[in-house]
Amino acid sequence: MKDKILKLYDKDNKVAYNNLLDLELETTGSNEIYNYFDELLGMLKNEKSFVRVRAFRLICALAKWDIENKIEDNIDLILNELDDDTSTSVRQCLDKLNLLLIYKPELSNQVEKKLKQLNISKYKESMQSLIKRDIESILKNI
């Protein structure tokens, strides 16, 4: 499993992305990746946006296994990824945020607050409408 986690840093985006998909699938039936939660938190501080997004997505996927409440303890750090300067990164994160909310409904107030304060004006106009729609969809389900 450690090798799979390390592949999330791979410079070859195709390798890293396919590995991410495998790990996300793994989280649906196993909590094994939860043992690497702290590593994923560290990835959120990486200088590379794609590494941070991969960590965010896996953290959301691990919400169902978070019996130690590590997500609650680090929710501000986790949600900071929604401020990314890359619109496609933000959309990927927004897409996985519902997983977190399904298993951690107690965080809905914090998620709602974060979503309402996001500055989407920094993105291209064409992306602003997509991000706004993603946010509205999430808020409707909170």
Provide a concise account of the structure shown.
The chain is an all-alpha fold. It has helices spanning 2-7, 13-29, 37-43, 49-61, 70-73, 75-79, 87-103, 108-117, 125-140.
Question: How would you describe this structure to a colleague?
Answer:
The protein contains nine helices and no strands. Helices cover about 65% and strands about 0% of the residues. The model has no long low-confidence stretch (mean pLDDT about 95). Helix 2 packs parallel to helix 4 and helix 3 (about 35-45) runs antiparallel to helix 4. The chain has one domain (about 1-140): Leucine-rich Repeat Variant (Alpha Horseshoe). It has helices spanning about 1-5, 15-30, 35-45, 50-60, 70-75, 75-80, 85-105, 110-115, 125-140. The protein has about 140 residues and is an all-alpha fold. The radius of gyration is 14 Å and the shape is globular.
Summary tags:
Leucine-rich Repeat Variant, globular, mainly alpha, 9 helices, 67% helix, single chain, 142 residues
Order of helices and strands: HHHHHHHHH
- What low-confidence regions span 5 or more consecutive residues with pLDDT below 50? none
> Which whole number gives the mean pLDDT?
97
The number of helical segments is 9
- Shape verdict: globular
CATH topology label: Leucine-rich Repeat Variant
Major pleated sheet: none
| Total number of domains | 1
The separation of the N and C termini measures 34 Å
- How large a portion of the residues is in β-strands, by DSSP E? under 5%
Structural class: mainly alpha
**Helical amount:** 55-70%
For the record, the CATH architecture stands as: Alpha Horseshoe
